[in-house]
Write a structure and sequence with these properties.
Elements: H1 3-7, H2 38-43, E1 45-49, H3 53-58, H4 73-78, E2 84-89, H5 104-116, E3 120-125, H6 148-168, E4 175-178, E5 185-186, E6 191-192, H7 196-213, E7 219-224, H8 229-241, E8 248-252, H9 260-274, E9 278-282, H10 290-306, E10 311-315, H11 321-324, E11 331-332, E12 337-338
Parallel strand pairs: 1-2, 1-10, 2-3, 3-4, 4-7, 7-8, 8-9
Antiparallel strand pairs: 5-6, 11-12
Amino acid sequence: MTDNQRTEAPSLRRRSVLLGAAAGAGALALGAGPLATPAEAASFIKGADVSWLPQMEANGYYWNNSAGVRQDLFTILKGYGITAISLRTWVNPSSDPGNGHCSIEETAQLAKRAKDAGMQVLIGFHFGDTWNSVGVQNPPAAWAAMTYSQMLDAMYDYVYHSCNIIKYYGVTPAWVKIGNETNSGICKPVGSVTRPAQMTGLLNAAYEMSKDVFPNTPVLVHLAQPQNLASVQNFLNAYRDNGGKWDITGLSSYAQGGNVPGVLANMQAIQSSYGKPIMQVEYGGPVGKPTQVRDSLKAFITGIKSFGGLGTFFWEPEGYPSFNAYNSSAWDEASRRPTAAMDGFLGV
């Protein structure tokens, strides 16, 4: 099959300006999970990012449920009331098991698997070949020498092409996230927050192409460390003031214990100030302190629900430390059972 057949379009480069209001809260409603009440599921999203799942399975990893019985990971997650899966994608990733993969083709295949398991899907673009985060915003290697105009064309093409691959696999994402922890901008230096017009142009191109393919799918921007309110405001002010388009403000927070109330207050202030609902798109905590992580997760869910936030995603709960030295997951590697951290999704 050719790329044109897959994308079902004669050209990858599209510059459509989309009109109309963003999708309303009704488009965000989810069906109930096994342990979630219908009212709870309709009003609050409980999710998990499991982008490492295919690589881990290929390396012989598996997961047991709380009774010690081996099950498909999605089945186990649904038992905790989780109804949504977040998946990242990189432009030209390496084959490294932990820090590569996640090409759009691989991501689309995993998105279809999640859909077939009855889960809704969040697709997250990093706009890089590997991790971009609050401290790192490197463009894909193929874009690194581009001018702003060239990069704008590349962004239009890439997001349009990628969304059509997702569509080809029969998946309509419930959400699309443009960028990952973009406090300092994207594809730096061209799209740095210190060049706000260019940053906004690139992100608006991604927004428009997502809407061109999936017109009813809400689009998120994503900021890290809401405890540092000024950093989040710096990005959102620059983006808004230059005509930035977004429907939901995604926020990462791994705060624990006594730090949670202050973060929740800032999340509420961000939602109120910019008129966009917030979603906690990353959460986790020390794998060796599962009850602390559980209690903090419950506090986040309770707090976010109280001011009308949309949901919470646990980041890579299945990620055993031996796989990629990641120590904020929610599975015990010795027993392969979920830890008490996962209980934070229950009863709230």
